[in-house]
UniProtKB/TrEMBL annotation:
PROSITE patterns: RIESKE. Pfam families: Pyr_redox_2, Rieske. This is AIFM3 factor. It comes from Eubucco bourcierii. GO terms for molecular function: 2 iron, 2 sulfur cluster binding; metal ion binding; oxidoreductase activity, acting on NAD(P)H. GO terms for cellular component: mitochondrion. GO terms for biological process: execution phase of apoptosis. The keyword Iron-sulfur applies. Residues 60-155 form the Rieske domain. PANTHER family: APOPTOSIS-INDUCING FACTOR 1 (PTHR43557), APOPTOSIS-INDUCING FACTOR 3 (PTHR43557:SF8).
């Protein structure tokens, strides 16, 4: 059941609409539980039939009522596409059969307590509404009508939904965007990764219709950063999380190549590196992390890379073709890059301080199995040593010298020795930063500064399954959830973070998925 509320303001009342202090028009405001919320109500007619075009609808008998037991799922074919039929608590539900994130078959996932979880990356969907309730991914599942006639189960669905297998939640738009002062915004989001984008989208999904500005040091709109080390030749438009048209449609402004130099929490102002200042009402800091660089002699030579942008990844792939590659650090990034380049480069050498890759994350047994798999794919390990020098010839990398005395031929070097939180611009702000540089937040992603929230890799937060111990969990899934919780609490919903951290990696056609 969809309920639509339309508010019509009489002509004589329109001049009395509330104006903000600076004279700009404010969006319509109503109060729920004493909390003011901004909503933009689009003028769509109320439709009793959710399928507007009868030609776009298909209805098919898919099974007998006794074919499914409670707690079972089945992929069913409607002729022009498939759906996932679910039986739980004696009731049937039908939703899209593919995860909108990367197309995983949800029938191979886990059904529990009214939700189905993706078998690949852990995204979670409500079986009644199709809504995404845990991440990664941005879109929800389409939901289809189910009816029972003469003990047969029928599904009625839109052909388009069956083909796309995804549904973007209804979103508000900004009211009177042209009336806004360029140097002022209601919500400012610093950082355009998963946390920042999910925050902006959640605000619009909840009906927020004031101005939202995202700013990023990157030159691109938000993209799927984990792909940089898994599919290194991907172009920015191939891994974009949303197309340019999406941001225009929902009035989410993105300022690219803009770096914030300082935040003044007293005057609620962000100061950019070029001197530009922007006032905000609510602020989200989601700047992520900055890769660590090598500190050895020769670190400034050419063809030594941190993988931070699509351009970095593309350049490494191009330079590595039939050449000698040295990767420093058996981190997730380092191992994924080694796996990707193993068939393209002449040689791949991996240098690591620890005895076994992933020992701290997955334990020695898994680490040794991974190491053996890599060695069978022509990757050579140099363990329990570090880089002491990078040697050059005519300004370009020629050799990597290890502290063990070994000299490795190298045309390209990729550095994956960890990262530090990107929050140095906050040192004089008054926002709480811990001894390691992480922004400290509570379960609602709030900092100690009123109206200032933080999310993603740059924060330390209380984790429920660790008895609320403060942790830093730099996972793609966790950044999504942080962004959603921050947005809901900007709107005073009082929602606390409650999710299980989940990560995945894929190398040589094998994957590791880790929950906890």
């Amino acid at each position: 059941v969809e309920v639509k509320i339309e508010v019509v303001i009489p002509e004589k009342e329109r001049g009395k609409e509330e104006m903000s202090a600076n004279g700009r028009a404010s969006p319509l405001v109503y109060k729920v539980n004493g909390t003011a919320r901004h909503y933009h109500l689009e003028e769509h007619p109320i439709a009793s039939n959710p399928y507007h075009n009868p030609k776009d609808v298909v209805e098919a008998s898919v099974c007998h009522v006794k074919d499914l037991e409670n707690g079972q799922m089945r992929e069913v074919d409607l002729g022009c596409g498939k759906a996932l039929l679910i039986k739980e608590g004696g009731e049937f539900h039908a939703v899209g059969h593919k995860c909108p994130h990367y197309g995983a078959p949800l029938v191979k996932g886990v059904l529990s307590k009214g939700r189905v979880r993706c078998p690949w990356h852990g995204a979670c969907f409500n079986i009644t509404t199709g809504d995404i309730e845990d991440f990664p991914g941005l879109d929800s599942l389409p939901r289809f009508q189910v009816k029972i006639e003469k003990e047969k189960v029928y599904i009625r669905a839109s052909k388009q939904a069956l083909q796309t297998q995804r549904r973007t939640k209804m979103m508000a738009k900004c009211i009177s965007l042209s009336n806004y002062n360029l140097s002022s915004t209601n919500v400012l989001i610093i950082g355009a990764g998963a946390a920042g984008l999910v925050c902006a989208e959640t605000l619009r999904q909840e009906g927020f219709s004031d101005r939202i500005v995202m700013c990023t040091m990157d030159r691109h709109l938000p993209y799927d950063r984990p792909k940089l080390s898994k599919s290194m030749d991907s172009h920015p438009e191939q891994i974009a999380l949303r197309p340019k048209e999406f941001f225009c449609s929902y009035d989410i402004e993105v300022l690219t190549e803009m770096q914030v130099a300082a935040v003044d929490i007293k005057n609620k102002t962000a100061v950019f590196k070029d001197g530009f200042k922007m006032e905000y009402n609510k602020l989200l800091i989601a700047t992520g992390s900055t890769p660590k660089a090598l500190s050895c002699k020769g670190k400034e030579v050419e063809n030594v890379f941190n993988i931070r942008t699509p351009e970095d990844a593309n350049r490494v792939v191009k330079l590595a073709a039939s050449k000698n590659v040295v990767i420093v650090g058996a981190s997730f990034l380092g191992m994924e890059v080694a796996a990707y380049l193993s068939e393209r480069a002449h040689s791949v050498s991996l240098v690591e301080l620890e005895e076994v890759p992933f020992k701290k994350s997955f334990g020695e047994r898994v680490g040794r199995a991974m190491m053996k798999m890599f060695e069978s794919n022509r990757v050579k390990f140099y363990m329990q040593t570090e880089v002491s020098e990078l040697r050059e010839q005519e300004g370009k990398l020629k050799e990597v010298v290890l502290k063990s005395g070994k000299v490795l031929r190298a045309d390209v070097c990729v550095v994956g020795v960890g990262a530090v939180p990107a929050g140095s611009f906050l040192k004089q702000s008054g926002i709480n930063i811990d001894s390691k540089g992480f922004i400290v937040v509570n379960k609602m992603m709030q900092t100690n500064a009123p109206g200032v929230f933080a999310a993603g890799d740059a924060v330390t937060f209380p984790l429920a399954l660790r008895n609320n111990k403060k942790v830093n969990v730099p996972h793609w899934q966790m950044a999504h959830m942080h962004g959603r919780v921050a947005a809901l609490n900007m709107l005073a919903h009082g929602v606390e973070l409650n999710t299980v951290p989940y990560l995945w990696t894929a190398m040589f056609g094998r994957s590791i998925r880790y929950a906890g």
